[in-house]
Amino acid sequence: MILGSAYLKSKTLVVALLIFGALPVFAQNYAIHAGRVIDPSTGTVLKDRTIIVANGRIAAIGAADLIAKDAVVIDLSHEWVLPGLMDAHTHLSLTEVGSDALPLESTYLRDSTAYRALRGERNSIALLQAGFTTVRDVGNSGDYAMQDVRRAIGAGWFAGPTIIDSGKIIAAYGGQSHEIPPEQGALWRYDYIDADTVSEIRKAVRTNIYHGAGVIKLVLDNSPYHYSVEEIRAAVDEAHRAGVGVAVHVYGGEPADNAIEAGVDSIEHGFDLTDLQLIKMKDKGIFLVGTDYPRAHLDIIGTAGGVFPEPAVLAPAIIDRLKRAHRIGVRLAFGSDTVMDVPGRTRADLMLDYLAVWRAAEVSPADILKSMTSEPARLLRVDKTRGRIAVGQAADLIATPADPLSEIENLRRVDFVMKDGRVARQRGANLQNP
Ligand SMILES: [Zn+2]
């Protein structure tokens, strides 16, 4: 044991450990004085409340003068406090579009799983600092790099968000690669599992769950051939029996029809979904994780090797699809799919660029907040413990110095982050020990 009793006498060290969240065993109680408390799940805003945090959870919410014994007081009386943000579509261990714009396959040749885990760690830290306390990471992480990132966060090696990750992406032969010369072999299997029959799909799902997957990701329309309803149903059946959801990468057309028919949990991207498909999704409670790329990002991504139409065409189509989905009442979960590195900006900065698209689609700040908290919590199957400010929920809390309900871009100004009851960022807070 490195941390003997002599070390524990150093109060400075204990406080430092609490701030950086290094050791979950030192659970500190907090009394957070909040100027406003926003609960996006109900749309309520409460004024001058005190949130008591004990053992990593919200123990009580009461009047401003509520006192808890032995609690460190956190003064956020000039701030707006809300649940931590969520992103339902990340690839934290992947950088696909860099300044040299190499194809996806170059990742397999250049980045070891260890290197990808380190990238995942770097991005996880940046996300938590920006207020993202839960993410669903949907693959492209080599040999399960994100499982190790999740494990390291769980062990308290560094503070990061709760991560629900998919393991390898399951697809029909070839993953998302095309025309790889036979001499090179199936190099895409670094990131993908080829599964071409019902039994192969079931085995692929079990393989990922064995390696810790909290969601199964299928790619449906990356080849002239695609999964039938029966094949997708096999994945859904196998995943659901293990308590895990199914996310499918699909743009539209018959593959999307098959996914909706098979009862998947979410459609990722869905840029070409028709109103009829969106209505069916609404009726079946299937989420849209729209990965609604901002125009500035599309200008960098380009046509992604001919996969996308020109940015001038795709950008307005994405806004229109989000607007239709919201009007129809499809359940929406914010998902960015950001895989770029831009000098001087963090991955989290880039993710928040998507807010502009949601505004352009005329989604209200209240509905955007819901799509970044309680709705993804439901999709990610963590809603019993995360996504709301309510007694019994994990203390995943953030604060901004200005109201995000009047201007959603204020989410860029997050200056306080608490993750599972530990302070991860405190610029906006004044901490007073008892
Ligand atoms: Zn993606």
Explain the overall architecture.
This protein has 15 helices and 17 strands. The protein is α/β, with parallel strands linked by helices. Strands 1, 2, 3, 4, 14, 15, 16 and 17 form an eight-stranded mixed β-sheet that branches. It has a six-stranded parallel β-sheet with strand order 9-8-10-11-12-13. Residues 89, 91, 138, 337 line the site of zinc ion.
Mean pLDDT: 92
Beta-strand content estimate = 15-25%
Principal-axes shape call = globular
Low-confidence stretches: 1-25
The small molecules bound here are:
zinc ion
Number of helices: 15
Q: What is the C-alpha radius of gyration, as a whole number of Å?
A: 22 Å
Query: Structural class per helix/strand content?
Result: alpha/beta
Structure at a glance:
The protein has 434 residues and is of the alpha/beta class.
Keywords summarizing the entry:
eight-stranded mixed beta sheet; alpha/beta; binds zinc ion; 434 residues; 17 strands; 15 helices
Which helices and strands appear, and what pairs or packs with what?
Blueprint (H helix, E strand, L loop, with lengths): L4 H4 L2 H10 L9 E10 L4 E11 L2 E7 L8 E12 L1 E6 L14 H6 L2 H18 L1 E6 L7 H10 L7 E4 L3 E3 L20 E3 L3 H13 L4 E5 L9 H13 L3 E6 L2 H10 L3 E4 L5 H10 L2 E3 L5 H7 L9 H18 L18 H6 L2 H6 L4 H7 L2 H6 L17 E4 L15 E4 L2 E4 L4 E3 L2
Parallel strand pairs: 1-4, 5-6, 6-7, 8-9, 8-10, 10-11, 11-12, 12-13
Antiparallel strand pairs: 1-2, 2-3, 4-14, 4-17, 14-15, 15-16
Helix pairs in contact: 4-5, 6-7, 7-8
This protein binds zinc ion (ZN).
The site of zinc ion has 4 residues, from loops.
